[in-house]
Amino acid sequence: MPFYINPKVTTHINDIVDFIEDLINKGYAYKGKYSIYYDIDKYPYYGQLSGTKKEQWEQETEFLEDKKHPYDFALWKFKKEGEPYWNTEIGEGRPGWHIECSTMSSKYLGPQFDIHSGGQDLIFPHHENEIAQSEARFNTHPWVKYWLHFGFIKIKGEKMSKSLGNIIPAKEFLDKYGEDITRFYIGSYHYREPIDINEESINQTKENYRYISSTIKTIVNEINSLDRTFYLDDNKIKIWKELLNYEREFINSIRDDFNTREATKILLEATNYINKNVIGSETFTLYFTSYNFYNIASRIYGLWDDIFYGKEYKENLTNILLNIIIDIRNELRKNKNYELSDKIREELRKIGIDLLDQGNKTIYRFI
Length: 367
What we know:
- The chain has 367 residues and is α+β, with helices and mostly antiparallel strands.
- The chain has three domains: 9-150, HUPs (Rossmann fold), CATH 3.40.50.620; 195-308; 312-366, no CATH class.
- 50% of the residues lie in helices and 15% in strands.
- The protein has twelve helices and twelve strands.
- It has a five-stranded antiparallel beta sheet with strand order 1-2-3-5-4. The protein has a three-stranded mixed beta sheet with strand order 9-8-10.
- A hairpin with a 2-residue loop joins β11 (353-358) and β12 (361-366).
- α1 (13-25) packs across α2, α6 (199-223) crosses α8 and α11 (312-334) packs antiparallel against α12.
- The mean pLDDT is 91.
């Protein structure tokens, strides 16, 4: 999903000033000598997100004598020598940290919206202060319906930080592992838990991704060649119900606080089951149910679109050519030319295509 808007604080100074003026007029903010402050005592829900009591907190401690309460925070900081500033209706100065985010998010998303995300280190005081000033201005509660706070990134067990010198730039990681592996790697963790980046876990992710992608390609390539199912025996009904159960569990894990770690586990278990019970069954219902399950997973992860929707001509051409090769090989087998037929299988395996002989029929799968 692309970002449609990339707002900058420097282009929203007038909006920030309007926000602060509104808070002053409503009695939630007051002017001091050094700054304009938010009066937390006027807001009854402070601490609702973090569980922090205002009495236990001091903000902008260097200006305690300038504030009504030690826990009040700055909305606008008046001009100081050597700092950037803007000449505005509320005075020369610059915005505080928290007011910037409330102003820009509400400008484009409205006075109330569904999801706000950020690192766990932003819960307090940043997000707590965002809530206070936004709910006061817009007279709404809650300002945000769902908060998603992400775990920290670690490198071999240590928190990633500039001071430790263990920073991996995102571009460098993407260049090394590619967009799809990066997305699947991050999605293999729950968003609230820390991600410990190490070569072993990345290699396992690459293998898991290859295995799932291979299975999806096989399902997509074979499904159109199967006859529609008009009858399922008891064993196939059992398999079909188990596939539906995997799909249900996968969706429920996403609904449960975006638990992508559990979803990935279910996706891998389902892939094992599909390889053992669906591929090679020649049963359209089982293939189609698997297809739908993977299509849902594709939309959730933002992966495998190229298999389902892109490169359609190329995939169809590959399917046609492989079926021609299979037909030729089957003729060789009928004529007992096993040496050449085996050579064809070996050469295809070298490029990642496996031929499975099932009686008089041969199917292929990507490996």
